Amino acid sequence: MRSLLFGIVLVTAASQLGATSCGGGVLRDPGFDLWCGDTLCAWKLERGDIRRVPTWHAADAGVELVDTGTAIEQFSAVDSIDGTCLRFDLISDVAETAQAELGIDIYGDGTIERAFPLPTVPWKAVSYVFAVKGPFTGIRFELAKHGPGRAVIARMHAVVVHDGCAGVPELWGGPAPLGALCVHAADCASSICAGGVTDVLGLCAGCDPSAPMCSAGQVCGLADPGPADRAVPFACVAPAARELGEQCLAGAECATGTCHAGVCSTCASDAGCPGTRCTAAYPQGPSLCGAGGHLAPPGAPCAGNADCATGTCSGAVRRQCPDGRACANDANCPVDGNLVPGPCTAVGIQGGSCA
Predict the structure, then answer these.
(1) Is residue 185 left, alpha or beta, with left meaning phi > 0 and alpha meaning psi from -120 to 50?
(2) Whole-number pLDDT of residue 211
(3) Contacts 24+ apart (CB under 8 A), 255-263
(4) Quick one: average pLDDT of 202-220?
(5) Structure letter (DSSP) for residue 3
(6) Which residues, 6 or more positions from 174, have their beta carbon under 8 angstroms from its beta carbon?
(7) Which three-class secondary structure state does DSSP give residue 203?
(8) Are residues 131 and 272 in the same domain?
(9) Helix (H, G, I), strand (E, B) or coil at 329
């Protein structure tokens, strides 16, 4: 079990790599160029009102924080694997009365660990550096205006750097949430760092599969996915609670009793499928006997219409990210090398039954 655990931890931790784009950039659309109608595409309007306005050059637009209390935010998947020293470069035109600032929220839990005031000199480029205590997973960047007056930002570019933080006090986000990177149990709010040993990263978890201590009537398995920057966490869950097609850690979680390649399935090898083969119904999907061969009779488990002799598989649509986690939309999926999340794709039927 320990070797299996390390394999899972290494795979999930590796999925966090590449959170930054080429050159170390950690924010999408740092120049506020991408607009979806009256709002920014890559930045979320947290409160208040914004509008697109010209800057020092009519062809170079920026974002104005219009009302007092207006704030925009972007969650970055940057983590301590990428680096722990960050620099942000800013160009803005902010009135002193506006009291605008950049907030740094490690883990995106709503607590601002540090706020940097935006300069009140028109259109002057400035740079700041800050250090984050590792290990950490994800930072929410918030641009907010607390007073009246003009506040226009033309660029807010953040990058990972490998020098410049000597002597800079480290920001600490507190004990890490489930699914975040860790080394020691003390790094985690749950006090469990699954797979973590000295100088080796693990994941904060609700249980450790190598030494599960769940209460009676529960098993150590996979919880529902949390924020996209974090791995799907280990947690104590009800036995047989996962349907065909859901992610799993062990067969005890699955209604089918079989967890194969990390997915609740009906078979694990050809030996369990007399006369046919045990194959995945779709990439990173459940394994079934004769998947896609129109062989399953009415009432049999299925993951798609092609599995059934009747051509109809009834059940809820399964949508998942490229890493196999369940999702409702692209925002639920980890970002790629260009910091674009998703795609969240309909892949089959979850917990299906041939009609």
Answers:
(1) alpha
(2) 82
(3) 255/351, 256/301, 260/286, 260/287, 261/287, 262/8, 262/324, 263/287, 263/324
(4) 91
(5) H
(6) 106, 107, 109, 111, 189
(7) strand
(8) no
(9) coil
pTM of this structure:
0.86
Question: Rounded CA gap, 23 and 302, in Å?
Answer: 45
Query: Which residue bears the tokens 């899972």?
Result: 8
Preceding omega of 135 cis (within 30 degrees of 0): yes
Q: Which residue reads 């067969």 in tokens?
A: 251
Domain-located, residue 10: no
d(CA 353, CA 244): 10
- Residue 36: predicted pLDDT: 94
Of 171, 188, 218, the domain-final residue: 171
Range of the domain at 112: 22-171
Q: How many domains does the chain fold into?
A: 2
Task: Report the C-alpha gap between 161 and 86 in whole angstroms.
Answer: 6
User: Tokens standing for 50?
Assistant: 């914004």
Q: 286 and 148 share a domain?
A: no
Instruction: Read off the CATH number of the domain in which 56 is found.
Output: 2.60.120.260
Cα-atom radius of gyration of the chain, to the nearest Å?
A: 24
| 29 C-beta neighbours (distance < 10 Å), count | 16
Residue 55 lies in a domain: yes
Q: Return d(Cα 127, Cα 143) in angstroms, integer.
A: 15
